[in-house]
Amino acid sequence: MGERNVLGGELVPCGTDPLTGFYRDGLCSCGSDDVGLHAVCAVMTAEFLDHQRSVGNDLSTPRPEWHFPGLHPGDPWCVVAGRWLQSYRAGAAAPVVLAATNERALEVVRIEILEEHAVDVPPDLSSLG
Q1: At CA 12, angle to CA 89 and CA 67, rounded to 5?
Q2: What is the mean pLDDT of residues 92-116?
Q3: Maximum Cα interatomic distance, the chain, rounded to a whole number of Å
Q4: Per-residue pLDDT band at 2 (split at 50, 70, 90)
Q5: Conformational region of residue 74, where left means phi above 0, alpha means psi within -120 to 50, and beta covers everything else
Q6: What global pTM score does this model have?
Q7: 22 has a pLDDT exceeding 80
Q8: Distance CA 41, CA 99 (A)
Q9: What is d(CA 88, CA 52) in angstroms, rounded to the nearest whole number?
Q10: pLDDT (0 to 100) of residue 66
C-alpha cells in the first residue's frame, strides 16, 4: 500500500502540469530524504506566492537546476508543511487538496486547519469515517 492522505485514504496526485512533488512524480510523497516535508497539496494564489516571497521563499521564479518551473496562481504544488502553516498564520494560506495532502502534514498542521482551507471536502463527511 502506498502513502496515505490526511483523510486516511490513498494519496492521490497533486499535479502534473507543472509536475510537482519532492520527487517530481506528481505526488506529495515524503520519503526519508525530504527533510522539508513537502506534504501539503496547495493551489497557488497570488497572496500565498507574495507572502512566501516576502519571507524568502520565492516560488514564482523558475529554478531549472532544481527542476522547478516557477509557479503561478492556480498551479497545484506540494509545499513544505511548515511554510504553508507560516502563510496560514499570516492570513495568506493557499487552498488545500486534502486527498492529495500527505498524512505526514499532520505532524506540523492540525487537520482542522487544513479542513478550513480545503477545496475537496465531500458534502457528506460520514463517508470519511
Answers
A1: 75
A2: 97
A3: 45
A4: confident
A5: left
A6: 0.90
A7: yes
A8: 9
A9: 11
A10: 81
More confident residue, 126 or 40: 40
Cα–Cα distance between 69 and 9 in angstroms, integer?
29
Long-range CB pairs of 26-29, under 8 A, 24+ apart, other chains included: 27/3, 27/78, 27/100, 28/78, 28/100, 28/101, 28/102, 28/105, 29/3, 29/102
Q: Are 88 and 117 in contact (CB under 8 A)?
A: yes
Single-letter amino acid, residue 21: G
Mean pLDDT for 91-111 is 97
Quote the mean pLDDT of the chain: 92
Percentage above 70 pLDDT, the chain = 92
Q: What is the DSSP string of the chain?
A: ---BBTTSSBPPP--BTTB-STTSSSS----TT-TT---EEEE--HHHHHHHHHTT---SS-BGGGTB----TT-EEEE-HHHHHHHHHTT-PPPB-GGGSBGGGGGTS-HHHHHHTBS---S-GGGG-
Q: Is the separation of the CB atoms in 84 and 90 below 8 Å?
A: no
Amino acid at 2: G
